[in-house]
Task: inverse folding
């Protein structure tokens, strides 16, 4: 047996026990001085106590609770994902306020969460309350917030102004010499003998210049992007040489020289134009449309022109005629609308339009008769949207 082994040192054991006793007394003193012991924070939302669950539609909710009336208090915030049973927020020193907003990217849609809060005397102080009552909430997508803007927009209209110019190609009504004598009774040229002259139909092609401008409007319905829409267009049209009441005669004097007579009746008009258009957005940039329209107005200037020409001499006569005649046209517009730009604000408002109109027109010549002819209008124009909103510019399709 080893002679160096001795009995335990009783003095050393007494010192260790005394130290342990002192440590216990100090620890119990610390806990006895904790003013938060036994207190419990009162959570106010969002969420419901089990077994209920509140539905919220934000992934960054602000958690709120009642304050603990003591200086220097900090709060720990804890959030559990109930699908994985994992803490997604675990912070013993989250805030000194009575609220805490969860940062983006932490929570997910269609997921249930539980949360609670605890108060501490300081960030590293062991003095604390017990955990608050657990509250449960579930996140659902913002269905109500998505529908509401659409319901508000339905009550609004989209307006645009337009300017258009073009040419109406039409058949001419061939007037007789007697009719033109009625229109220009003081003409000297019409008193000549035309028995040796032949009718020259090549000079009877007709066209009329038209310039129009106005406004158009339609209901704004973003939920029907790339679907048919109906638009109403109203404006004023300047109309020149609309009726095509003409005649021409030619007499060949030899193999080179001709003697020509030309008679023509022309008008200038101001009309009110109205059309109902049905369009379809083929792509975010291109729209096709068609519809029905009508224009009506009064003649404010009318005149008859008589022209005589040969190889060495030209003579013209012009006579003013009665004004105030009422004229009317019906047409079927067919067009292509092209948005000029997609990215910048100005160019996304501007459109270029190409339009054709098969037309049937009725004209009154007060001194003679009412006549009708058919024609085809070809025109181009610009359209500018006055109040395009972000939800209306569906340029990303």
Result:
């Amino acid at each position: 047996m080893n002679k160096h082994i001795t009995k335990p040192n009783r003095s050393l054991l007494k010192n260790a026990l005394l130290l342990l006793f002192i440590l216990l007394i100090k620890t119990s003193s610390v806990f006895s001085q904790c003013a938060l012991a036994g207190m419990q924070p009162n959570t106010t939302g969002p969420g419901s106590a089990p077994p209920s669950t509140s539905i919220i539609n934000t992934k960054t909710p602000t958690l709120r609770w009642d304050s603990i009336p003591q200086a220097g208090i900090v709060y720990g915030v804890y959030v559990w994902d109930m699908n994985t049973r994992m803490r997604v927020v675990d912070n013993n020193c989250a805030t000194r306020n009575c609220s805490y907003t969860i940062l983006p990217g932490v929570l997910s849609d269609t997921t249930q969460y539980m949360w609670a809060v605890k108060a501490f005397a300081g960030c590293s102080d062991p003095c604390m309350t017990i955990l608050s009552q657990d509250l449960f909430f579930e996140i659902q997508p913002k269905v109500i917030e998505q529908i509401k803007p659409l319901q508000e927009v339905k009550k609004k209209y989209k307006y645009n102004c337009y300017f258009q110019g073009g040419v109406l190609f039409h058949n001419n009504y061939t007037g007789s010499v007697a009719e033109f004598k009625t229109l220009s009774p003081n003409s000297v040229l019409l008193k000549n003998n035309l028995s040796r002259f032949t009718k020259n139909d090549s000079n009877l092609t007709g066209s009329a210049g038209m310039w129009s401008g106005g406004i158009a409007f339609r209901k704004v319905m973003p939920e029907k992007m790339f679907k048919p829409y109906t638009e109403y267009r109203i404006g004023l049209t300047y109309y020149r040489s609309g009726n095509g009441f003409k005649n021409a005669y030619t007499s060949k004097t030899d193999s080179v020289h001709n003697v020509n007579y030309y008679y023509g009746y022309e008008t200038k008009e101001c009309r009110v134009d109205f059309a109902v258009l049905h369009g379809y957005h083929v792509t975010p940039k291109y729209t096709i449309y068609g519809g029905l329209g009508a224009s009506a107005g009064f003649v404010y200037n009318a005149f008859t022109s008589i022209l005589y020409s040969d190889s060495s001499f030209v003579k013209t006569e012009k006579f003013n005629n009665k004004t105030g005649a009422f004229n009317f046209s019906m047409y079927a517009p067919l067009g292509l609308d092209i948005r000029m730009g997609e990215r910048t604000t100005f160019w996304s408002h501007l459109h270029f339009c190409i339009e054709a109109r098969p037309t049937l027109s009725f004209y009154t010549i007060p001194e003679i008769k009412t006549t009708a002819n058919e024609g085809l209008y070809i025109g181009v124009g610009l359209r500018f949207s006055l109040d395009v909103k972000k939800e209306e510019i569906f340029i990303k399709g």
Summary: Residues 236 and 272 are 5 Å apart (CA to CA).
